[in-house]
Write a structure and sequence with these properties.
It is a single chain. The chain is α+β, with helices and mostly antiparallel strands. It contains 14 helices and eleven strands. A hairpin with a 3-residue loop joins strand 10 and strand 11. The protein is globular and about 65 Å long.
Length: 336
């Protein structure tokens, strides 16, 4: 099996696993001579066997710029394409490996959002893998520069852990990547919280306030039914870049349906998703599959936090720079 076919098959497999990939999240690349083949922005790894999701980029152009410290370099396409290279293309060029995979894997992400994540993960992973790590940085040039420094500090690292973001893994082929990913996820697997009572499924009493409907995923409803999770919503919302980009800067939480009605009547504001304590989670009709995937990802990460775990949330400046970002607006547009 040639490199492209093995990578395409692997992308389709991991893209179909929401514990590894959510919607159009994550990206994969491989190097072929002077060409870096990288997933296009806004495309889904799950579609790799059905659609052409990769674009060819001039690799020497990138490596030359990066080696001279130019992290503002714009990837140069080889040939014509209507698609743009992934926002994370520089990460793939920086890694010296033949194949590079960047994922927002739940079992890993659940640790990466915690304070002191490097210390805690280091205790578990030990010396089983050569890994480096970074603090949170906005995806793109800032993150690429941080990863470059991390790789300089840990020569030979094949795994880079990105705070509040995800993991980058490099290898000679997909088998090596898969082995490393299995090793990390097995060691970091955390049992999620037990489910509490089921939500009300037909809340007709709020139908006149923006056509809200209950989400169909019972796990997402736990964000409103489990008081530990509900109480964390306001303080632990902005955990990851994609979460902020797709779901907004802060959650709309209400103590009751009457409390929701009162707020809506006073402000006229219609949030796309609302959380009503002991009732459930509800969304507007325009709430799409990509947003739903991010909401489930948020639940999966939050449900794996120890009772007293302190999490690192993005600050107001970090949130603002994510929401005022042309590259992400382009990616969201492609997914609609």
């Amino acid at each position: 099996m040639d490199m492209r076919t093995s990578i395409t098959n692997y992308c389709a497999a991991i893209g179909a696993d929401p514990m590894l990939v959510q919607g159009a999240g994550g990206n994969v690349s491989w190097k072929s001579g002077d060409t870096l083949w990288v997933k296009a922005s806004g495309t889904c790894l799950a579609d790799a066997e059905r659609n052409d999701i990769f674009v060819p980029v001039d690799l020497p152009h990138l490596t030359s710029a990066l080696s001279s410290g130019d992290f503002s370099v714009i990837p140069r396409l080889r040939g014509q394409s209507r698609l743009r290279p992934s926002i994370e293309t520089l990460l793939h060029a920086l890694m010296p490996h033949q194949v590079v995979v960047h994922l927002h894997a739940i079992e890993i992400l659940a640790w990466l959002v915690r304070n002191n994540y490097e210390r805690d993960i280091g205790i578990v992973l030990g010396s089983r893998l050569q890994w480096a790590s970074t603090t949170y940085h906005k995806p793109g040039a800032a993150l690429a520069q941080a990863v470059s420094i991390a790789l300089d500090n840990i020569p030979g690292a094949s795994v880079v852990l990105l705070q509040n973001h995800g993991v980058v893994i490099g290898g000679a082929d997909v088998d090596e990547i898969s082995h490393q990913l299995r090793t990390i996820t097995k060691l970091l697997t955390t049992e999620p919280r037990s489910l509490v009572s089921s939500p009300q499924q037909e809340p007709l009493s709020i139908a006149d306030y923006g056509s809200y409907k209950p989400v169909t995923d019972p796990f997402i409803h736990q964000l409103a039914m489990d008081m530990t999770l509900f109480n964390r919503l306001s303080s632990s919302w902005a955990l990851c870049p994609d979460h902020v980009v797709f779901l907004g800067a802060r959650p709309a939480c209400y103590s009751s349906i009457d409390g929701f009605r009162s707020k809506i009547d006073d402000s006229g504001f219609r949030p796309e998703v609302i959380f009503i304590r002991d009732v459930g989670v509800f969304t507007q009709p325009n709430f799409n599959a990509g947003q739903t995937a991010q909401l489930r990802c948020y639940y999966d990460v939050l449900a794996r936090q120890p009772e007293r775990a302190e999490v690192n949330v993005l600050n107001n400046d970090q949130i603002a720079e994510l929401l005022d970002w042309d590259a992400e607006r382009y990616r969201i547009k492609l997914m609609q």
